[in-house]
Amino acid sequence: NTVEMPLIPVLAAMEQAGVSLDPAFLHGMSSELAVRLDELEREIHARAGHSFNINSTQQLSQVLFEELGLPTEGLRKTKAGFYSTAANVLEALQGSHPILDLILEHREVSKLKSTYVDALPTMVNPSTGRIHTSYNQAGAITGRIASSNPNLQNIPIRTELGRQVRRAFVAAPGHVFLAADYSQVELRVLAHISRDPALVEAF
Question: pTM to 2 decimals?
């Protein structure tokens, strides 16, 4: 009654308000990413010595571990009997062959293009010209709000390419976007409640 219920109309208003998107920016970015994907594909095929389906984990495993002889020590095999080509496996092998950097970049560019750059413009409401996500206040076990259809809390930020996607979200005329984040809020609350001398001193 004091915390969760009063939040409902706030979240409803946020959902109705939505957020503006610049589809033209994303269309331009999509074309650039398509060119980069073609370049990467050609380079990967040149390193492998022949063309193959980069998105096929079986074909990729065959190229990397059978044809190019990348180290397989400690690697697990899939049910189909091929060595795993999961991102963490390829990242651990980085430096053993130049093809790995190209494959990892290909995956990043491909994921960005399909999940965000090409998908977000299709989610713009034609009546409002804005994207309206759904906020679920009990969406995460930690008590944090979750966002879905689309998940606007999951827009990439770790890479320069990912950060470009964020530039597609634009503030309405006369408005600005503000980013604010609590610093170590859980531990600060814990320090306040517990009055633990060491925690209080730390903050």
Answer: 0.78
Cα separation of 155 and 117, whole Å? 11
pLDDT tens readout for residues 58-93: 999 999 999 999 988 888 888 888 899 998 999 999
Helices and strands counted in the chain (H then E):
8, 5
Residues 113-126 as b or e (16 or more Cβ within 10 Å = b): bebbbbebbeebee
Block residue for tokens 């976007």: 177
Looking at the DSSP bridge assignments, the partners of residue 131 are: 19, 124
> Is 153:140 a contact under the CB 8 Å cutoff?
no
How far is CA 78 from each of CA 38, 58, 81, 86, rounded to the nearest angstrom?
28, 9, 5, 10
3-state secondary structure 132-170: CCEEECCCCCCCCCEEECCCCCCCCCCCHHHHHHHCCEE
